[in-house]
Amino acid sequence: KPPLVWKKGECQRTKWGCQAQAAVLLQWLLLFYLFINLSLDRSIDLLFHLSHLPSSPALWWVGDQGEEVQWGFEELGFLSRKAAEVLSQACGLRKGDRVIVILPRVPEWWLITVGCIRAGIVFIPATVLLTAEDIQYRLQISKAKCIITNDVVVPLVDSVASECPLLERRMLVSKGGSREGWLNFHALLEAASDEHQPVQTKSQDPMTIYFSSGTTGYPKMVEHSCSSLGIGLIASARYWMKLTPSDTMWGLTDTGWVKFAYSSLFSPWMVGATIFSHGMLQFKPTVVLNSLAKYPVTTFCGTPTIFRMLLQHDVSRYNFKSLTACLSGGEPINPEVIRQWKAQTGVDIYEGYGQTETTLVCFRSKEMKFKPGYIGKPCPPFQIQIIDEDCNQLPPGKEGDIAIRIKPKRPLGLFSGYVDDPEKTASTERGDFYITGDRGIMDKDGYIQFVSRADDIILSAGYRIGPYEVEHALSGHPAVAESAVVSSPDPVRGEVVKAFIILSPAYQSHDKEQLTLELQKYVKEVTAPYKYPRKVTTTSECPSRTDSRNRQP
What we know:
Blueprint: H1 19-37, H2 40-51, E1 59-62, E2 68-71, H3 73-90, E3 98-102, H4 107-119, E4 122-126, H5 132-142, E5 146-149, H6 154-160, E6 169-172, E7 183-184, H7 185-191, E8 206-212, E9 220-225, H8 234-240, E10 248-251, H9 258-269, E11 274-278, H10 285-294, E12 299-302, H11 304-310, E13 325-328, H12 335-345, E14 349-354, E15 360-363, E16 377-378, E17 384-387, E18 400-405, E19 417-418, H13 422-427, E20 429-430, E21 433-442, E22 448-453, E23 458-460, E24 463-465, H14 467-474, E25 480-490, E26 494-503, H15 512-526, E27 535-538, H16 545-548
Parallel strand pairs: 1-11, 3-4, 3-5, 5-6, 6-7, 10-11, 10-12, 12-13, 13-14, 26-27
Antiparallel strand pairs: 1-2, 8-9, 9-19, 14-15, 15-16, 17-18, 18-21, 20-21, 21-22, 23-24, 25-26
Helix pairs in contact: 1-2, 2-3, 2-4, 3-4, 3-7, 5-6, 8-9
């Protein structure tokens, strides 16, 4: 039995002559197996069985202190069976039960996630940046029976657990020992059997739920089935990422966002590629650049903000000897960033566009022409059209709604719906189309240009921020009589949150600079810190929601 942690200084990557054929065969075997048996859990066993070809690891993780963990597919299969046993036996979770997983990029995240899939448990990833109020909302609205997290988040969970009557189990991922009221994942994993038998699930059974910000109200629960992510993301692996078993993929995003499932879960493993991950808790440009030079990463994925921050350093002095492609998503990327990165590294950046509700919608790959301002072409199996309010297809060059055809047959890759909100789910459909909520243009060659959001969502450094969430947070401070939150352009983050504040009478004479700092600190304390307003303006009249679409400077 392999150890839980393997520490090695370097991995010897073995290449074989039929890598491409093996990758294609694996993909089609998985597709055939899934659609015949309508089961993702069994296909995981098939994947791990077929993919332990020569010694490429499934996961290569590097910690902040230089420690390393490497698991092959066979080891991952062994450990994830034990993790599934912990979830089903020690935690008492059954098929369809929901578990919230709040962990940073640590190896245990992958074990728990795959363990959930094996046991038919619906996993709900969440960012470690959540506040106690955010966690309470997610526990209550999701009706999760279990929460899994680390030492940092434990006090926040404990402070709201009494308000969450459906929460039955709390499990701690920590090497520092146990806590009262918490199960210890490492201790249970060590003692667990590796004989777990996967629970039978069907292709349309729920697999995961992601929380996604909206323009009104609290974040929505976006449900994906076993097929929509498990199989839908094979297309992104093949057409956009161009991954094969000889590749190593590094996606630099938070575990709480669906983009992590793209770059650091389904896409690489469904084609037998290696997932590389760095456990740094905060983004450090020099760590990223040094890691790209040191480790055999062939494909790197980040937001435009990440590439802009990396380019603030002299990237040309680094030798990325293994890097062959870079991917960008989460927000539109400036063509100048693509040009500068190519000039300094010799590597292209290929843009992709998708949503929490979808898998990859459209993309550019090396076979496609680079058209500044355009993302690329639709990703199979999606049929993308630009339509007007009456569902008429618009001619090339005309702006309209970016829409995905869902009739006569709903394509793989689309979400199942918003949990417990059929009205909101129905509002995303118009005629024969799913409406993305984004505006765009398609040219005569089929390339798509993103123009804007049709709503007021703020895209800042890859984060989706709903104005209502920030306004709600501000409303709790006694200085705020009224507020309006809008998007403001930013050269580094793309957009930032700007808040217009009408002060209550008691605060009219306060020092505006000090009050701004106080309000920013307050918002960081009551909601996820990335949502705080980086710009604050006091005013006698707040702009309307329509005005906010003008992207206030």
